[in-house]
Amino acid sequence: MKVDQNELRPRRGIYLLPNLLTTLCLFGGFYAIIAAIDGNFERASIAIFVAMIFDGLDGRVARLTGTETIFGKEFDSLADMVAFGVAPAVVCYQWGVARIAEYGAAWGRFGWIAAFFFAAATAMRLARFNARSASQDKRYFEGLPSPSGAAVVAAFIGLAFKYEASGLLGFDVTGLPGLILAFVITVLVAILMVSRFPYRSFKDRAAGERVRYSKFLLVPLVIALIAIDPPVVLFVLFSGFALSGPIGWTWLKIRKRPRVTSGSGENG
Known about the structure:
The protein has helices spanning 5-8, 16-37, 41-65, 70-100, 105-132, 146-162, 176-193, 213-216, 218-228, 230-256, and strands at 140-142, 198-200. It is an all-alpha fold. Helix 2 packs antiparallel against helix 3 (41-65) and helix 6 packs antiparallel against helix 7 (176-193).
């Protein structure tokens, strides 16, 4: 049966539901910026995670309802740039640069350069994804996805804001070491986003696919853990996912390395 190539192309036009979800993702990023400017970093971090929820829904709704369009794809990328590129960078800047600048002008410059580097890396990550989306293996992302990178930064800022007074395990997250750590994490996450490390996309899992009951129980378990201490648990979860790329890549390289057996060689 011959398939019309025009049917495989994204439709032109605008569909309400998926683009409404994308707009809510954009609003989450916009609100995070406003909240950070007002000094409410807890709300700013929450807004980024809310934007992640809507970003995860818009694409799935579009695929399930057959309402994928060229406009929706471009709109989604622009919304992602604001919500997961500019917003985390501004939140990190507003929270840390003024404080780290107290320790010297050089530290202040390091802070805003780190924040800009994150925003620039997000733009490059999204541009590369759009350019290679047609030929890329749908099971994996090339480089850390920008929502996950934003989640690491937002979770750390939320964690630092929560434990600002008492500290975290006796560590002052608002002192110079904590501020340096925050910007180093921001830079490292940015590098992972533009890296070539493979990350599971989980897009090969169909919505109606059957799963084992034991695996399904992980969902309420994760939700319960997040409810206990959201900043800590979210930071651990997304940091673990961020590290899974280089760790998995290294593990595959070690497994593919040829083994040297005793007695081998020219004189063996």
